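Dear Dr. H.,

I hope your travels went smoothly. While you were away I took the liberty of generating a structure for the chain from your last submission, since the lab meeting agenda had it listed for discussion. I wanted you to have the full record in hand beforehand rather than looking at slides cold. The sequence, exactly as received, is reproduced here:
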Amino acid sequence: MTPQKLVFATAVEALFVRELGGHLTGVARRMLREVGLDLEQPLEVTYSLEQWKRFVSTAATVLYPHLSSAEAHWWMGIHFVEGSLQTSTGRLVAEMAPVLGPRRMLERMSADLSQGNNFSEVRLVELKPGCVELWMNDVLDDHSSFAAGFIKRTQQMVGARNVSVDVWSFDGTAGTYLVRWRDAVRG
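The corresponding predicted structure, in token form, is as follows:
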């Protein structure tokens, strides 16, 4: 039997409490409560991946009604990184980020994601300096743009310039991305 894909409270807290908490209106909080996330109660220890996806989709719809679904989910990926940076582990990663650089930051993505779930796997193939193919076994959303958003934001965090993240393939679960960047100028 395949173990259930679980998202830990740390990921839910990062996105929905730390990053979005102050931006969620009463209506947004009610809508999240209706899909199983009551932010007025202590968080559960884990949530199923399907619950997480409902939470992300609900927040994307509420916060970005004027954007396409793909764009809204891209922004949710950005918010996911921003919220993660507000945690104690995220602050440590942010301090190390400039030293790691873009490629090494991508190499540790699987380990970083494992802080928030029990299933993420990431593999890299370097195509040339500043250009990798990145495969994820599960992009944490029904939209490949969610992962594209958080990949781009992590690259910007390490100081990469001219970052682009293109979706090469997405089967509804796993995604392959072409990630390109220029290294930061060192002073």
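Two observations you may find useful: The longest strand covers residues 161-170. The helical segments are 9-19, 26-34, 49-63, 69-84, 88-107, 109-113, 144-157.

With kind regards,
E. W.
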